[in-house]
Amino acid sequence: MDKPEDTLPSHPIDPSGERRSLQLLVPGMGSDHCAGLIATSVERLPGIFSLNTNVANHHVTVEFDSGRLGDGDIRNAIERAGYEVARVGEYPAHAGTDGDEAVEERYLDQAWQRLWFAAIPTTLIMALMMVHMFWVPVPGYLALVALLAFPVVFMRGGWATHRSSWRSLANRTANMDVLISMGSLPPYLIGLAGFVYPMTSFIEMAATIMSFHMLGRYLETRAKGRASQAIKKLLKLGAKTASVLRDGRETEVPVAQLQVDDIMVVRPGAKVPTDGEIVAGSSHLDESIATGESVPVEKGPGDAVIGATINKEGMLQVRATRVGADTFLSQVVRLVEQAQGSKVPIQEFADKVTARFVPAVILISLASLVTWLLFADSLRPVLYWGAGFLPWVDPELSPLMLGLLSAVAVLVIACPCALGLATPTAIMVGSGLGAETGVLIRSGEAIQSLKDIKVVVLDKTGTITRGEPSLTDVIAVGGFAEDDVLMYAASVEVGSEHPLGQAIVNGARQRELDIPTVSHFKAVTARGVEGRVNSRLVHVGSRRLLDEEGIELEELEDALVRLENEGKTAMLVAADGRAAGIVAVADTIKDESKAAIAALHELDIHTIMITGDNERTARHVANQVGIDEVLAGVLPEGKVEAIRKLQEMHGQQVAMVGDGINDAPALKQANVGIAIGAGADVAIEAADVTLVGGELTKVVEAIRLSRGTFRKIVENLFWAWFYNVAAIPIAAAGLLHPMIGVIAMTASSLSVIGNSLRLKRLKLNVDK
Asked: Coil, strand, or helix at residue 330?
């Protein structure tokens, strides 16, 4: 940036030696190669504890000893590496602010202005060159071209490039701008010799190289903006203001001023300003920003709501429970930023090679120059061969001209932009796509590990099943109707706080039954309950309760055994001393669990259910959804050892799916831990992957996303390497004109970004 601006004053060195974290915005850090140079420069400073570079949002986060360093020292180190610092701020308070987007927009505008500043004179130069070469000689041609090219090569974009190159070299690093400077400055300066000696002009080439460099920078910045839209979209999702009840009056305040326990008024069609709990009103809320599901969810008093979700119809009063950086949306933004700034293991090798790439290219370029100066006559047959199908090859040039052309071509064709963009753009798009569908992958390592998973271990309660009991069966005998049996059971259980009793009451309400008031209610310890319903004495409970009352169960014996074998909790119902029927309750299976297990099998993944329940109940659930293997009777503390044994049996390719809190140790032990949760209660810190919705199908989506993202990374790295490996020898052989090289360099970078953007077409949804 031309005029960097800070969000806070530069802190001097603090003698107390406090540990501080700082975040700097470096818009020119466009690839991992740039990030590596910046890291190398900063890590040379004393007192650096940790450093993280995030190419996706151009952030450099540094933890340092304020007793040995000040903010200005870190900023200067980055600028010495050849990169401008646009913003400096405390971390994490500064993370993810709207100001960053304004800086990025200004940086894009600046790239556009630099492009036009270079393109207009270069277009005039090209027009003059065509007239001079193919029509009539232009009087004072060399002077005109030199004057027009001067602002392109030495002002605005050209000056920024050369300044960056000088800083980089002075800091003992070599960024990509070094290659562009070496590809444009020598041709311009050598071209000036034409005023003294008759020779071919190289000034046109210098201007063209710099112009295409500006075009590449602009297109790259714009394309990367498209790739990193996920965070921008997330930041824009939140409400800007909130209507709050204070002192009995409704007041509109900025969301940033909300406090915990504020009562917010959310009207139909409005966004919920921040995470909270409904205290009055009921409505349907569109939670698609959190879960990826478009069907609105019914909410009422006591239910938790997520900030930025949309109230569809009713008026709500919501008590704020989380504000600022603690909200669900803020957590998601941080997680996506963390994922986009992370590296996949495959990238480590590419980074090591890329770090040595620029110096190697400079050596190859110099070697090419010397080789043509010494052995031009021996190499001319190659040029005569190439001239047969390449119009820009001229075998009759002098050894000096041939050496300069090949040296400059090597410099510009080898610019490793495409290599540096290969991994971060794919991770950027993949993690953004996941965030939009409720699949949050927190690291590049998890992306690579998840694609190789062969075994998925699933916790039963809350993962395969709903985690709460529901009414499953109503059986009537002795002339009683099913609705009567359920009505009697619900009437005596309506006052119960036990989850099984509540499940019966909820089942009756779902069938829209009238639930009469019970009288003479009595709880019989460890047996059940009794009471009078519509003048009838009703008993609801175990076999023992009815035996003690002398009630015969002959007609219900077979049904009772069957229900218990299915792992259900069966409660007998009797009225006026006669058996009336059975109501059964169980933790029901989620609607999508069977489809999810089938989809995992299609991915050749072995499924295992782990549970503390008995073998019979566990087997019944497993058979219903198609689980391959069951580990029953496993206590919470035994899950870690179970995962460890599975890793020994199946190799280090085991994923664990749990609720992210109770199963945290097992999630950490697994090669990939997947936390399945819902809304603001999701435990983002508990696992490598967090599934915002409670649906098991999201596990399949996460694996598909991982495989698709990694495939793009491999494709990008292959084509970037293939391009450089193939192009450098061609350039060194004198068969590639520098201007063609700079076009190809730009095309290579854009093709990598374009290939990454194709990830957005990836089909993640599981057909249910």
From this structure: helix
